[in-house]
## 1
Amino acid sequence: MAISILPFDIDSASREDFTEHHELALAAFAVDRPDAPLIDFETFVGRLRAIPPGVAGQRIWTAHDEGRLVGSVVVQLPRLENTRAAVVDIRVQPAMRRHGIGTKLLQVGTEGLREAGRDIVVGRGITAGGDGEGWANRLGFATVQKIVLQTLQVAESDYTRWEIAPPRGYLLVQWKGTAPDDLVESYAGARNSIRDAPAGESGYQHPVWTVERVRHAEDDARNRGVEHRVSVIVHQESKAVVALTVLEAFPHLRTTAFQQDTVVVPGHRGRGLGRCVKSAMMRWLTAERPEIGLVVTNTAADNNFMIQVNHDVGYLTRRTMLTVEADLTDLESRWADGRAYR
Ligand SMILES: CC(C)(COP(=O)(O)OP(=O)(O)OC[C@H]1O[C@@H](n2cnc3c(N)ncnc32)[C@H](O)[C@@H]1OP(=O)(O)O)[C@@H](O)C(=O)NCCC(=O)NCCS
């Protein structure tokens, strides 16, 4: 077996290139995510192109055995926050595993990271108990957080669950793209309560939300063609945003949306505002974007309240996934002394 690793340019890739990537993903997902619905070609390519918020860009390398695609690594460099981290996503064709390809992809993917100011390597979405966990342990990664993946299939949902009015004294407000000037300051303040969510041992840093940071995130979404929807609950007496949820839909991904941060600020918890604001988001989304059939969200595995709220809204828990972290220095020493390949 002669494995070659090559850079992959998403902008100049042909349909045949994407088809090969899609086939690799289908083969890998059948083993790693057997619970997940099969991902169609358009959705797959859309996901590859959908660079998440707060990421400057991504680099991809592919592994080939006699010209055949057998693996890939996607490396993303967060900006503004988490600027010491590089997030890697490695995939190897199941029939080609345990031949050192995943490790080689990691080594190539981490080259040059130090020069880019990165010294922490993060892996996300690794199926607990799967090949990725064994591999990450072997390479010295530490599991820093357990996450549950929850998905809502719109076609299977009972829309009446979402008919929840805000309690007396609270008002629902929704916007796409730009927060209204009279709410943006308290919206920014409320978003900072996301820090109360359990974070495990993860070094992940949430943004410090200010009006400026909110406007920056809105511009960022607009520039990337991302539809950025926000539903909030305003406490009428104080005129403050006290609950919020954010949902994003990417331009190349017509049928999937991502439920992002949801927050209820302290002092207003326990009044059903989380369920209310998420239900409002689903009413709004299904009315305006009927083609979206799947909504995906990630929640810390020990965040029982949020998991329960999601169940109430119609999300099902699909699987537990791990976030792992390693010091770049430690990985480099493994490449240097050959430990990674023994
Ligand atoms: C994780 C993954 C990329 C590893 O690819 P790979 O090419 O099989 O990995 P390697 O051959 O480089 O494995 C190196 C060592 O890791 C360990 N390892 C790999 N898979 C393992 C498993 N399933 N169980 C236990 N240890 C494992 C072994 O020690 C292996 O060396 P050995 O085969 O000589 O014993 C591949 O399993 C995969 O695509 N998984 C699904 C996606 C994923 O979880 N990616 C995580 C990275 S972000």
Note: The mean pLDDT is 93.
## 2
Amino acid sequence: MTTLPRPPYLLAAAWLLPIAAPPLVDGAVRVDPDGRLGAVGPRSALSAAHPALPIVDLGPCALLPGLVNVHAHPELTLLRHALEDLPLHSWIPALRARTARWTPEDFDLAARWGLVEALRAGITTVAATEASGASAAALREAGLRGVVYVEAFGPDPARVDDAWADLERRLAAVARHASELVRMGVSPHAPYSVSDALYRRVAATAAERDLDVATHIAESAAEVELVRRAEGPWAAALRARGLTVAPRARSPVDLLARTGVLERAPLLVHAVHIDEEDTAQIAASGARVAHCPVANAKLGHGVAPVPELLGAGVRLGLGTDSVAANNRLDLLDEGRAATLLQRARCADATLLPARQVLRLLTLGGAEALGWADRIGSLEPGKDADLCAVRLDGPHVRPVADVEAALVHAARASDVVLTMVRGRPLYDGRRVLTLDEAALADVVERRATELSQP
Ligand SMILES: [Zn+2]
């Protein structure tokens, strides 16, 4: 790709997908010096209106809003391919045993490496749910937009003060990196790792400080067994730690309602094992959903009822989850998996058409993160967060339907431009903000060292 000039300039492509409006052939946007989109429309109309502005022609590409990854754990990127073929109740302890040996620098390295991949995949916004919060500094360095939800852990109600003190320390560390582009939130981890008392404390503090909340919920059948009946592998694991385990609620979603978390309209990560009553509760609360179809399938959890959630009016975006459960941050692939899995689940070829998937990957994600006023669609006045995807590869051509081409054929490696608020971060040849080559060397070496027994 040619080097971009200083704004203002016109960025033109064979296809433009504003998302808020149907796709255009030969479209363009005007990128302004304030990092916003000044105009969006047919290339001929924009060049006629701005004859003095330079035009950068991206060629056989689709230009669309930057992809929004509503759930990831960049801090865990060193664990790619390291925890294969385990059920979640074994996967989580294996992950903890591994990361217990990591230094803060290892989490920083992992986060940066994860963001290199995101930049190359056209992802412009990353919601990072993390214990270390390493993504806060990494997002800033990468120039990406994001939310860092700092995780709270503590299944023992007698130790809620300790869990809280530990969370406060990490929240303060992340707060130092907060900016207009990097927001922070809080995340009680999951029902098997958080006591009701800790849920209540997080909900109350989030309300006091106006902090956004994200939480893993209703991910597995085992989690439902724990919450509803105090049975199953999670109950056994908690009892083995000497904790008292009793039925807590009708369902995991109901547990959030009983502890005040649902009142915060949180971002619900997974929401696979939910029934009609849960869906109604989610919709009534205004909570949002992060749908992670590949991780849910890979860990053997099932398929979230996405058409039902969307039908109930729930705001929903797509997330990759961590590379330890996926194994890559390819949101186009995630969108394809979302469609295929729903169609397989419901035996219905009309579910999640490509246009709807592209909306979920962009505006849907922006809505799920409360950022739709700035990003998610290409409209004048919004920030120039965008990506361009080449559509001339042999796996994509001929392009009879640009939306289907993007969702069902294109992949992360076809991305040639990633830009946040008018600042190019990846230009099709190299990542411009992080030193990919230097990181690659260290990542290989350190991951190998850390995998030794
Ligand atoms: Zn997760």
Note: The chain is about 40% helix and 20% strand.
